[in-house]
Amino acid sequence: MLTGIAAMMVPGPVLRTAADAAPDLVRGTTFPEGVMAGVPRTDGATLWTRATLGLLQNSGKLALLVSRNEDLSSPEIVTEVTAEAQWDGCIHYPATGLRAGEQYFYQFRGKDTESPVGRFQTARPADSQAPTRIGFFTCQGFTEGYYAAHRHLAAEDLDLVVCLGDYVYEASVPGVRGIDLNLYPQVLPAMRAKYAHYRTDENLRAMHARHAFLPLWDDHEFRNDYTKNRWTLGWEPLFAAKRSAAWHTWFERMPVPRFYPDDMTRTYRSVRLGGLAEILTVDSRQYRDDQPCGDGAGVVCADADNPAREYLGAAQKAWLLDSLRGSTAPWKVLANPNMLMGMISGAQGERAFLDSWDGYGADRTELLSTIASSVDDVLVVTGDDHNSFAGELWDTGFSPTVPQGTAQPNPAGSRRAGVEFVVPSVSSPNNGDVEGAAKAGQSARNRLDRNDHLKYCEMVQHGYGVLELTPSEAQFRFRAVDKLDPHAGVTTSATFTVSRGAPVLRS
User: pLDDT tens track of the chain, all 507 residues?
Assistant: First the structure.
């Protein structure tokens, strides 16, 4: 399919004439944040770039080419796209009409400049039984480590990369890459500058240019531990202004199609990948009630199971339950920003993370009970914690033999509901960074001793995760990368396998 300026072009083996053939294309533009292809479908994806515009330019036209050939010969799409100042030069182009399960290459061009060439794979057809591979990362504080993990993610053989949240941190602390002085950005230009700063990293840009991408948000894209109506500053006018700037920038900077009329708020969605997997993403922030017991950690909190308190909000919860029950995919993959399984951290029954599902026990029990009774083969992949965990999910979040605390009894489960993998951070500090390796090892053993459903806990390494799905089993690999070495290699620190019909982890 040729569209737009194709009729004006002279075809060639490498096809470098698109800009020459369209005299109104913008001159002198650059592409400082690279290119991305987001939310793949069987017939295309959302193609993204940001083109710089002059101070007096309100918009500029570029050419876009999409081809099955890396040299962009014989393109299937040739069209004009417009970069607008109101979106800071960001372009979202809904490429359609492509073949399912195929590799494609794309490039944006000005009159005299070109973007990097990007690559993505369209989703396989619904009857495909080919193995499906998904990469997951989370929590990449820019100053606190290098992004060698993204260099390795770019080299993996993947159908898709998922960000589980905390793509940027509005606040930062001094680290191996210095200090980001753009602290607590409150207005739109400062939020834009935050994303632009992160994308100065060549490894991050290379990962985006190599794989289709599906992002979630968590709290640090806005403010730590925020909820639907609360943040640490407390003053509502500031909250509303920051929310507007943060969400505008996220939708502007991410390669995602929007849901109308919720075009600047809704992020939860489902993506079908061939005949084996459906990914369901959730928004764990903008609909939740305030965390219980003052957002404490490692505390006894009876209010954590109060059924009046919501985590997903009514509309999103109904969508998620209906989507899980209605999915025809053999594997249902829930991409989840905050830990779902229960986590006891003390002898009195203290829960470790009240900012996670541990602070919203009633919503968790409803979700996991529904899965246990009516949905098979659910895999949950989670971010946020900065450490690595693998565990088995029960209908209450806790195993049948969960140790009961002296002050807070935690509800024992009776039915299996799935398994969960919690991905380590790319660079944000984990227990090993904060406590040292020896004490982090003790913390990990404490978690394993107090939580029978937890099968793996590692609190020193950083990196990412890779999930591979086949018709009969799922395999998850924890991939470890030293965040302090920009040239670090990658190793597999742990591997777990799950068979269809048996939500039990095997190492």
Answer: 333 333 333 333 334 555 556 678 999 999 999 999 999 999 999 999 999 998 878 999 999 999 999 999 999 999 999 999 999 999 999 999 999 999 999 999 999 999 999 999 999 999 999 999 999 999 999 999 999 999 999 999 999 999 999 999 999 899 999 999 999 999 999 999 999 999 999 999 999 999 999 999 999 999 999 999 887 766 678 899 999 999 999 999 999 999 999 899 999 999 999 999 999 999 999 999 999 998 889 999 999 999 999 999 999 999 999 999 999 999 999 999 999 999 999 999 999 999 999 999 999 999 999 999 999 999 999 999 999 999 999 999 999 998 888 898 999 999 999 999 999 999 999 999 999 999 999 999 999 999 999 999 999 999 999 999 999 999 999 999 999 999 999 999 999 999 999 999 999
Rounded Cα gap, residues 49 and 31, in angstroms: 7
Query: What domains sit in the chain, N to C, each tagged with a CATH number?
Result: 4-121 (2.60.40.380), 132-506 (3.60.21.70)
Dihedrals φ, ψ of 79, to 5°?
A: -155, 165
Q: Cα(122)–Cα(286) distance, rounded to whole angstroms?
A: 30
Euclidean distance between CA atoms 38 and 379, whole angstroms = 22
Give the burial class of 337: count Cβ atoms within 10 A of its Cβ; 0-12 exposed, 13-18 middle, 19 or more buried: buried
Q: Tell me, what amino acid is at 425?
A: S
State the Cα angle at 500 between 42 and 458, rounded to 5°.
Answer: 95
Rg (CA), the chain: 23
Nearest to 255 by CA among 32, 89, 61, 35: 35
Give the dihedral of Cα atoms 464, 469, 472, 478; nearest 10 deg.
-10
| Residue 71: alpha-carbon gap to chain centroid | 30
Q: How many CA atoms lie within 13 A of 167 on its CB side?
A: 28
Euclidean distance between CA atoms 119 and 392, whole angstroms: 36
Polymer length of the chain: 507
